[in-house]
Write a structure and sequence with these properties.
16 helices, about 70% helix, single chain, about 5% strand, mainly alpha, 4 strands
Length: about 400
């Protein structure tokens, strides 16, 4: 066992000293995580800009623009008519709202007022959303005037001042906004709305499996150069050499996983101390299953290029069918195929612990399958390993 551990420790030492391996195995996952976070990890609410030409500049036009600015996620940019026309012609903007002159005067006199959209084509998806928001705010103002008109008719001739009517209407509308009669509740399903919870399991399993399976190339290279044959001429047995390579591969995968999980623990605070330890347990078992697969690849490949291609194809297939970054519906044919990917079990186990607050007891099935892959993979690779040049 000492010789086996010595081989594993020596492999890990060489791995930590190789700047190229470290850059690929440790820095690349971190950079990828950061890029995905900045690209897709922003707020889930809409963010857009409403371009407005205010030709009225009256009281109600100003109030309307203020309500647009108060809408969450919407910014308002005031343009001159000439600038708006130029930007529309150049397609710098897709839609512009025009508040015509006399807008406030028409509302004050009880007449109908009109807003105008000028747009290119259908204004695009974001333009349509902005237009919908503007219509919604205009609807709120329209409701306000309708309520005021109805109240004025009811109290007409009762000597109630216009200011008092205005105050009562505004207070009633404010109460309705704060405590609406109909409340819309959002329930998110089909994945966690939290970016870290959603993507962290996939990033961990993707890079760990990719690095572990590609380590098969190193074994093939050692076999081609005769390094394995020279080692087997010493007191080392094939079994000891085999297990040493296996433990070294597990260690490499675990080091990578530990750094990713530790950074997530420190930066995003998605773990409790207990859930962090449970994720490390899952990582070790997954690394062991992946290492067994890597040994099979190393045993059947006869060149470094062959090992690389087999590892790449295997990794890509497991990423695609394992639900690495998206949840697979259980009633789909893809779900049945995903059961053949070891990533799917690791991703589900990580997701249960990280996103759902579960424990190791809740992922016993997934861990059992991964352990089974490890055992079967070791047996198969050990049998093939015997017929390698220099084996005995």
């Amino acid at each position: 066992m000492k010789r086996t551990l010595y081989i594993a420790l020596n492999e890990v030492k060489l791995y930590l000293q190789d700047k190229g391996d470290l850059a690929f195995s440790l820095l690349l996952p971190i950079v990828t995580f950061a890029l995905i976070y900045f690209a897709f990890g922003g707020p889930v609410t809409f963010e857009g800009t409403a371009y407005v030409v205010d030709e009225d500049k009256g009281t109600y036009a100003t109030r309307f623009i203020k309500q647009l600015e108060d809408f969450e996620g919407l910014e308002v940019e005031i343009l001159t008519p000439a600038k708006a026309d130029t930007r529309l012609d150049r397609s710098d903007v897709q839609i512009v709202l025009y508040i015509p002159a006399g807008f406030s005067e028409a509302l004050a006199s009880g007449d109908k007022a009109q807003l105008t959209f000028r747009q290119r084509g259908n204004a695009g998806q974001w333009g349509q959303v902005v237009a919908s928001i503007i219509r919604s705010v205009a609807g709120d103002i329209n409701q306000e005037f309708q309520v005021r008109g109805q109240v004025s008719e009811i109290v007409q001739g009762k000597g109630i001042a216009e200011d008092s009517i205005e105050f009562a209407v505004q207070r009633s509308l404010e109460d309705e906004r704060n405590q609406p009669a109909v409340v819309v509740k959002e329930e998110v399903f089909g994945g966690s709305p939290d970016f870290v919870n959603q993507y962290l399991p996939g990033i961990v399993t993707m890079y760990v499996l990719f690095a572990i399976t590609l380590s098969a190339r190193v074994i093939v290279e050692e076999r081609r150069k005769g390094t394995l044959e020279r080692l087997l001429t010493t007191r080392l047995s094939t079994g000891q050499l085999f297990l040493g390579k296996f433990f070294a591969s597990i260690s490499r995968g675990f080091v990578q996983t530990f750094i990713l999980l530790a950074l997530s623990y420190i930066v995003f605070q998605v773990f409790t101390p207990l859930s962090f330890i449970e994720c490390l347990v899952i990582a070790i078992i997954f690394a062991a299953a992946g290492s067994a697969v890597g040994l099979i690849i190393a045993s059947i490949a006869r060149s470094e290029e062959g090992a690389s291609w087999i590892a790449v194809v295997f990794s890509i297939l497991t990423f695609m069918f394992g639900g690495t970054f998206f949840e697979i519906a259980q009633d789909s044919s893809l779900y049945t195929i995903s059961r053949l990917s070891i990533n799917s079990y690791a991703n589900k186990a990580f997701d249960t612990i990280i996103a759902q607050g579960g424990s190791l007891a809740d992922v016993g099935t997934e861990l059992g399958i991964l352990a089974g892959v490890m055992v079967v993979g070791l047996l198969i690779s050990r049998l093939i390993f015997r017929v390698m040049p220099g084996g005995r």
